[in-house]
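Writing this down once: the sequence line spells out the residues, with the fold written below as integer tokens. This is how one looks:
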Amino acid sequence: MRLTKVSFSFLLAISLFFGCQAQKKTSKSDTPIYLNPSANVDARIQDLMSRMTLEDKAAQMSQYVGLEHMRKALGDLSEDDLDKNDAQGFYPGFKTTDIARLTEEGKIGSFLHVLTAEEANELQALAQKSPLKIPLLIGIDAIHGNAYYQGGATVYPTPITQAATFNDDLMRKVSAQTAIEMRATGTQWTFTPNIDVLRDPRWGRTGETFGEDPFLVGNMGVAAIEGLQGEDFSSTNHVIACAKHLIAGSQSINGLNASPTDVSKRTLFEIFLPPYRRAVQEANVFSIMAAHNEVNGMPGHMDKFMMTDLMRNRWGFKGFYVSDWNDISRIAKWHHVAKDFKESVLFSLSAGMDMNMHGPFFQDYVVELVNEGKLSVERVNDAVYKILEAKFKLGLFENPYVDLKKVKTTIFTPEHQEAALQQAREGIVLQKNDGILPLRNLDGKRIFITGPNADNMTILGDWTSPQPDENYVTIKEGIDQFAKKYKFNSEYYDCGQRSKWITDENINIAKSKAAQSDLVVLVLGENSYRHDWPNKTTGENIDRATLALSGNQLNLAKAIIETGKPIVVVYVSGSPIAEPWLESNVKAVVNAWEPGAFGGQAVAEILMGEVNPSGKLPLTIPRSVGQLQMVYNHKPTAYIHKYNTEKKVPLHPFGFGLSYTSFQFSEPQVSKTSFNSIDDKILVSVNVTNTGEMKGEEVVQMYIRDNISSYTRPVKELKGYKRVSLEPGETKTVSLEIKAESLAFYDADYHFVVEPGEFTIMTGNSSADKDLKSITINAPDKIILD
């Protein structure tokens, strides 16, 4: 073939073009540093930020809800509903196509509530069309497993149930599994753990916490963060954790979510802040969420002392802050300490906030405030640096997508299911047993099952999307699984799937059926199931004015008690139930909390004696709402006097939980009696013997009291615990460690110190005085920790 001059020139040009392109691809010098995976993270961030405009940076600080979430919210909510709704959101005046366009333009840095892997990939693909191709950071409320994911992820027990296990290692394990399932489905950031220390169980979010004790909450929080993040979250199997909510929203003045909190600085440092200090200093948590509420008149989203002076400058927090829902705008709308959203942005960012959840206009105000000289560009750069650091370490610049083919083989695996079941088994608390449990001699017997929580998704708890039927076991189903093995017959009656639905007719029918049975399993409790808002009785933004059973449940129980049949009550609830009369009139009470996907199986195993209950209460259960505040670690003068019409002892103490066997504790022994320096340690040892006839697990608990101190100290504080498994007749020695931190508190100048003096060390299996044995140690000199 003969080439003309034109065609030859054309081919030559083509050849040179592709040759140059090939040379560019192979030349590292022509590749932006931020796109070079072999460069160190700091160099990549600095290079990328040098290419970003102020508008680009402000966009990275902005988060939006997912497009599918938006579409649903548009159908569910009016614009008037938006301001008070913390679960759903859309943006008046913005279509989903507008949000997609903003993503393509690089004007959105993060999304939340992206509920499918497909949508996660679609959003990342939009972001890759932007000029700088900065991937999105996608967050989700994976509070107890990636349960918000709609494709059948593993739903672990809720945090209050997890805390009842007193098993930090298991918490770490299920958190690591949660991270794997999150990454497989396209999310890299979870808004958990909630390390609020519960002080008012009326608060609907009780089930989202690890209970009332700062030490237990801190341990569970650290374990969760370590499981989620790994060493520094820089692998495809780890995610960013988020400690929340800074701070003290669990002790509002009226028990309502987002209401004001008015507590002393000392209470903040002694009760609420210890888990945050540990989350930062021990677990290196990479994000913290501010709280809806104000504390002592200061809205959490503009609290410079908390966010910057304390967390960053004193305790060394290295990550970034994110707002809760629309709470930056609420500085003006709710708290009325700013004139508008723009001024709210100024106050919040100046205090240390880094990212806005969620919606438009925030980034525009950031740009305006910088250009007006009111907000420093350094403050913006600090925020953006940390957000980009997260994206680089997570590997999102190399691969922002997930392999859809691998989703089903990565989530809800047999290993993850087994861990969820184990956590349910260990978290269920036996509160009463008059010898009826475990159930025996069931051959030919008739078991009648009823109650609003017996056969539905309430066992899954809050922060859960609807799950496939085959992915969870209800309590009715769990009991039915044992019918053939133990040769009993079971009958279930739907008396109303929600407490609000129980009618007098339902009660009469249930009573009639109970009278024809040999045993009744009555499944009562509350409903925090997120996708059932009209019937929720607890959970986020559904707070309680009582600790009694909701709806017609107590009348149902009374009617069945009148039959004279033996009754086992099973509570399913993230909130504690205070029903002293009911507990005194039934044979057994099993507190299942919200036991997750395999909760029904775990409850049935415990009823049948296949598993020996070993859960312990992570909070005090009062006799009534009138006893509040009731916590085990109260100050010495809390109960000098009496109530007129109520006892001053709880229905059940913190740390309490029965077993089918019995345990005997020896007097505690210490490795030495004097604690001398910041690095000193004392081992406390106790012999535990299984004196019963069944293998069982016990939780050995250690409490400490500072006998004389410059400021009043609690009568006892949990400072150690350990699970121990014992065969009948077996004895094991359990050792627990006392460190300087175990003895320290905040002095007049809020230095963390050990004061000279005597300390009482108490060991046993609950916080009740009758369950504890003691020994004394001393600290001869003052020790300064912080």
Q: What stands out?
A: The two ends are 85 Å apart (CA to CA). Residues 1-28 have pLDDT under 50 and may be disordered.
